[in-house]
Amino acid sequence: MTDQTRYFRLANITKLINTKLELRDVLNQVIAAISEEIIQCDSIGIYLPQEDGLLRGFVGKPEVMNGMTIDMHVVDTEYDLLAKEVMETQKTIYVPDTSIDHRPDCRTVQAFNIKSLLALPIILENELFGIVFLFDAGIPMNLTDVEIQSVKSYVDMAAIAIQNAKNLKNKEDLIKEKQLLLDVTHDLSMCSSVHEAINTCFCYISTLLNNNNIGVHLLDTVAKLKIKPTILNSKSDWTEESWITTLKETNFDDENDQVFKDVIATKEAILITDVYKDDRVNHAVCRAFSIQSMFVVPIVSIGEVLGIFTIVDMHRQGLNYSKVNQQLTQSIVNATASTLSNLLNIEKQDQIIKERTSEVLEKNEKLNQTMKELQRLNRERELLLNSAGEGIFGIDVNGVITFCNPTAKSMLGYESVDELQGQSVEQIFSANSKGQGETVFFRQDQSSFPVEYVISSITEEGKTLGEVVTFKDVSERKRMEEEIKYHAYYDSLTNLPNRVLLNDRLEQGLSYAKTNEWKSAVLFMDLDRFKSVNDLLGHSYGDILLAEVANRIRFCIADDVTASRQGGDEFILFFPHIGSELDVMNVIECIIDLFNKPFNLRGHEVYMNCSMGISLFPQDGTSAEVLVKHADIAMYQSKNISGTSYRFFKTGMDTRIIEHVKFENDLYSALEREELEVYFQPQIDYRSKSVVGVEALLRWNHPLEGIVSPDKFIPIAEETGLIVPIGNWVLERACEQVKRWQEDGNTSLCVSVNLSVRQFEQHNLFQTVQDTIERIGLSPKFLCLEITENQIIKNTELTVQTLRQLKELDIEIAIDDFGTGYSSLGYLKNLPINKLKIDKSFIQELKSHDSNSAIAETIITLATNLGLSVIAEGVETEEQAEFLTSKNCYLMQGYYFDAPMTTEAFEKKYVHLI
């Protein structure tokens, strides 16, 4: 073929490209030109890349080979290494003999009997558009370099044609996209309700994605409950009614759905092509609706997420919308968001008006009153509409305000919109602010207020025409932040500095004191019997008391003294600079004088004492930690003095505290070292002189101190919480021992076990007792649990509930130390109890006519009238026993009969007599 002919064909193809024929027509001309140039070629094909990564035949000659049209031919670079190399290197590769070159796909070579092969990349400006393949069917082509170069000339024309077609399509797509968004914006602007706006969005998204299964979830509670817009596309595979019903049946919670939470948090759309491979998805809901894949898009207006559009596919997995369609969908939703935001505000205001109008019509029959109310509501609506939302104003490239909304006008302190327009933005804030953030705006009167703002550019064809500023007043948020900051350093109940601020002032104050060689002081103060106020009157009265104590402390101290509440009923005063101890004593005397006066707690006059300890800088310590510690130790020492008292720290005071702590530490390991032991004291029926039961009593055999009195270690166990495991251990040991005695023949023996306050605070007390007796095999009727009156008062509701559960098991309930607490007949008769136990304080020195005799006799009569049994403890003389018998109290316990004794001693003396 002559060069003239070749140039003529190239010129003809160039002309076709410029006439904007269909791409397929132009490429067919390229194929025809190549086939006439390379006559020994049996097949020519142009293959274009697909989204799935394969190359598919677009045009070729012949159009059908081996019964397959050209578009049925695909090239997979995973198997065709020749195609892969051409795409990676963008170089032409000629294979003169396929029998010795194995890069071509062997399946294709065999299917078409290919002997030689030429593959050329279709490239322009380093962009690969596809590959041209030439091959023979039986006889090698034996191409020369000149022929290959000629073919490349035609391929270059194909690259130009494809690029032109691509650019043309991009332009057409861009025009369509812009027109689509213009149509969306226009249609949304015509919407007068949230319902219309959502349906408009449904229509455009379903058309764009060819999918009618679209739903929306609005986050606005008022909108969901009162406006009740549509939530499902009317053309969906489901009806809205069945959709809502199924969501309720599957217990779907949109507020806690992880996919929705991620979209709301990131404000970005999520495409899930297979819902069952994503752990965030609610699979139960997906199965109920047969959902296979989903596209979730947030509705965002000025940084606020109004709701979520969800597009689901119920027919296939692997749904994968193109990026263009995803972006267009988001653009449609963004346009909808702005409209929705405005319509939601309007419809919510309309809803308010409707509700209030309805109320007026129901309450008033007179037309004149109704009209006045409607006029008032209309004025209110106008006020709400004009003041609702963020402030918005626009500025041109010179920084001049071109427009604003009524909200902006009002927030900036202008009388009218016209008055603000034309002003320089620099009168409001710095024009250098960009993007978004927080700053200070200035009103017309030059007063300032904090705002959160967003600046968006107005552009057209890449040219900036101005900017739109959206802002909202964050004064209230700033005020709350200051309040939070205040509460970080001050106690909210007393408004005194808290522990954090005190530590800071201690560090600074002591540093100044060291530098200037000043004297300083720390006073640690603790209220006595504060817990009783909380228990008897309630915590609200305790709070009033603490606040009043803080006021009295403030009255006594100078401005440079820091008074701090440490929590509970503890206060610390820091004197950064004192001349002598006299300065501290003046404050102490003032506090003592004020504490001698009653505190008025909502009509209840309460007298309180406090204990104070003082440490001095530098003699009692040079660090804040040591000074507070020594003041605390001195305070505890002052508790040994009656009334409101104080002690200055003296060296050696902390020795007793250390001994107390060591004693406490020993108690922690007492159970593990088996130092605790259960003693038993017999309970006697005085009429028959027989043993009817035993009380289990705890003793501690300390390795160094010997037998420790319960009065010493039980309060420590209560304070540390060790009483709970210790009490459970006593219960288990006592039940086990009585069970063994019953198995030895003492079948009627009962055991009484004391329960502590801490045990009753455990919500699993009932379960613990039930598990214990079931594990041991002891019948519940042989167990008596003893509680004090004060335990009932601490948490009456919880206590009564637990007591009823225990009594339902047939366990006997007794009130121990009866008469010493705060019992009242009103609740005593309703308690599920079986027995009253007269406290030993009423039995000791019992005489026939003294007050103790009267109290004991009253308790016995009370028990009889309530149908309760009664037992007296602390019986030490025959005279006491005879008196009780004369008053019909026959059950007794005390040293007159026997002291508490070990298991072995009890068995030796009593078991054979029971």
Estimate the helix proportion, in percent: 40-55%
CATH architecture of the largest domain: Alpha-Beta Barrel
Tally of distinct domains = 5
Unreliable spans: none
Please give the order of strands in the largest beta sheet.
25-26-28-29-30-31-32-33
Commentary on this structure:
With 914 residues, the chain is α+β, with helices and mostly antiparallel strands. It folds into five domains: 3-170, GAF domain (Beta-Lactamase, 2-Layer Sandwich), CATH 3.30.450; 191-351, GAF domain (Beta-Lactamase), CATH 3.30.450.40; 391-479, Beta-Lactamase, CATH 3.30.450; 490-651, Reverse transcriptase/Diguanylate cyclase domain (Alpha-Beta Plaits); 668-913, TIM Barrel, CATH 3.20.20.450. 46% of the residues lie in helices and 23% in strands. An eight-stranded mixed β-barrel has the order 25-26-28-29-30-31-32-33. The chain has a six-stranded antiparallel beta sheet with strand order 5-2-1-8-7-6. Strands 14-13-17-16-15 form a five-stranded antiparallel beta sheet. A hairpin with a 2-residue loop joins strand 21 (599-601) and strand 22 (604-606). The longest helix is centred in the first third of the chain and has 45 residues, at 145-189. The protein is elongated and about 140 Å long. It starts with a helix and ends in a 5-residue tail after the last helix. The relative contact order is 0.03.
